[in-house]
Automatic annotation (TrEMBL):
It is a multi-pass membrane protein. The chain crosses the membrane at residues 12-41, 78-96, 103-121, 133-157, 169-189, 195-215, 227-247. Its main location: membrane. It comes from Leminorella grimontii. This is Probable membrane transporter protein. InterPro entries: TM_pro_TauE-like, TSUP. PANTHER family: MEMBRANE TRANSPORTER PROTEIN-RELATED (PTHR30269:SF32), TRANSMEMBRANE PROTEIN YFCA (PTHR30269). It is found in: Cell membrane. Belongs to the 4-toluene sulfonate uptake permease (TSUP) (TC 2.A.102) family. Keywords: Cell membrane, Membrane, Transmembrane, Transmembrane helix, Transport. It holds the Pfam family TauE. GO terms for cellular component: plasma membrane.
Length: 248
């Protein structure tokens, strides 16, 4: 794979990955939305998700290791069992039915919710702990179906937690669990036997780390209102991306 890449290609990908992980460093999700379309110009599409899984897991680990005390483990413990259950359901749907119709419904919900949140129409309100049931379960389903469940967890956490850094680190912890599951699957399937893929991940790793560092610094300087606006904008873009994917 690398033999077909020029140094300028690698430079463009590195810049793109850095920008992508600035967003990840702020919100804890969104890499597939931002990076996939750029990376598709340079590497095979079937290599993008396994590569991003390695980078996402590393980025999540970097976030959690630096600020692990900010992670709200009570929320992680609530979400993870439902994430696993939802992932099993999502995998079954993927194998035995057409998931495209579900993608339209999810996109419509995400777009409507993010527009509602960005409008400023409603006052800040906290979700009750029971909100974890739909958000954790649905997030697991769509992580398994489309590799895009992070924004569902972001909606839940932003309605439960008040501190920007707690939201970011808790989100990263959940993404870490989710991507680690995918890495194990790809490893068992032999995807990572492609040494050129692993080498490209190593080349892009410094750009990822720089992006996460910049994103963290930005998050610490943001007010809660500005932070939630950024999160909801990324959620909105995720919904639009899913809607386009559903009809493409």
């Amino acid at each position: 794979m690398l033999e077909h890449l020029q140094w300028l290609d690698v430079l463009i990908m590195t810049v793109g990955i850095t920008i992508t992980y600035v967003i990840f460093g702020i919100t804890g999700f969104g890499t597939a939305l931002i990076a996939s379309s750029l990376l598709a110009f340079f590497i095979p599409v079937d290599k993008i998700v396994p590569m991003l899984a390695l980078l996402d897991c590393s980025a999540a680990a970097a976030n959690v290791m630096r600020d692990r005390r900010s992670a709200v483990m009570s929320e992680v413990k609530r979400v993870v069992p439902l994430m696993i259950l939802g992932s099993l359901v999502g995998a079954s749907v993927l194998l035995y039915s057409d998931p495209q119709r579900l993608l339209v419904y999810l996109a419509a919900f995400v777009i409507a919710y993010s527009l509602y949140s960005l409008s400023g129409f409603k006052p800040d309100a906290e979700f009750t702990p029971r909100a974890v049931y739909p958000f954790g379960f649905i997030g697991g389903i769509f992580s398994a179906l489309f590799g895009s469940g992070g924004f569902i967890y972001a909606i839940y956490l932003s309605g439960r937690l008040k501190d920007n850094n707690s939201i970011r680190v808790t989100q990263s912890t959940l993404i870490g669990f989710s991507t680690l599951t995918r890495i194990v699957i790809f490893l068992l399937a032999g995807v990572y036997a492609d040494l050129s893929l692993l080498l490209l991940v190593l080349i892009l790793l410094p750009g990822m780390l720089l992006g996460v560092y910049i994103g963290r610094r930005i998050t610490l300087a943001l007010s809660r209102e500005s932070f939630l606006k950024i999160v909801n904008l990324v959620v909105l873009l995720s919904g639009i991306s899913l809607l386009i994917k559903a009809f493409s």
